[in-house]
Structure formats: C-alpha cells, structure tokens
Amino acid sequence: MNQAKLFFEAGADGGGEALYRNPDGTFFTSGSSGGMLDEEEDPIISWQVDYPDFQNYWDDFVRKNGDFWLFLFPLFIHPEAIPVIKKAIDSLEDEKKELQKDGINTWRFAMEKGLKPF
Q: Is 61 within 8 Å of 11 (Cβ atoms)?
C-alpha cells in the first residue's frame, strides 16, 4: 500500500507542522498550535494544506513564519529538502545571520546529522 511519507517536520513549544509527500509526488502539511495557556486565551488551531512541491511549501513556510522560522526546531529534514533550506540560510542578510546564529546552527546541525523520524 502506498502511503504518504514524512518529508519535513519542525516545531516549538505550543505547536508544529509536519510535511508529508504523497506517492504521486505532491505534499500536504498537518499542523497545530496553541494550547499553551487556556483555551480562551490560546485556542488550539489545526490545519492541513496541500502543495504541489517542496519549494512551494517552503516559500509559504517562510512567508508565514518570517525570520522566526530559524527559532523553530527541525525534527526531521528529508535529504531532498536540504538544498532549499541551505539556500534560505545563505540568502539571509549578514546582520540577520549574526543575530540568529544559534537558530542557524541548530538547522545546520539537523541537516548535517540527518535527523530521522522517531
């Protein structure tokens, strides 16, 4: 049976998002956030979005998270995603690279060590 396979996952306290690749090569996310406080102040929000390819997903991921994506923790990165993520890091302005060096180092470590799904 052909099933979707984990391709990318990142998160932080209070939320995260996983990206899966379907057998036909398309992708979909499954994510949630909230619930750190109480339901009234911080409601739990979940979503699922389809993407034709990883580049479209990544562009949306960076747009939604702004520079904060560097502070998310990468839980799994498929080897095919690494060039796109490296390009995003390399294209940061030098000032941002200096300010966010800890986050950048976390992403580089994850890409070099090839974190596996658990």
A: no
Structural domain count, the chain:
1
CA distance 15 to 44: 9
Q: How far apart are CA 48 and CA 75, in angstroms?
A: 18
Rounded to an integer, what distance in angstroms lies between the CA atom of residue 98 and that of residue 108? 14
Q: Which tokens hold the place of 92?
A: 């940061």
**Is 54 a member of any domain?**
yes
**Cut 0.70: pTM above it:** yes
Tell me whether residue 118 is in a domain: no
Q: For 44-89, what is each residue's pLDDT tens digit?
A: 778 799 999 999 999 999 999 888 899 899 999 999 999 999 999 9
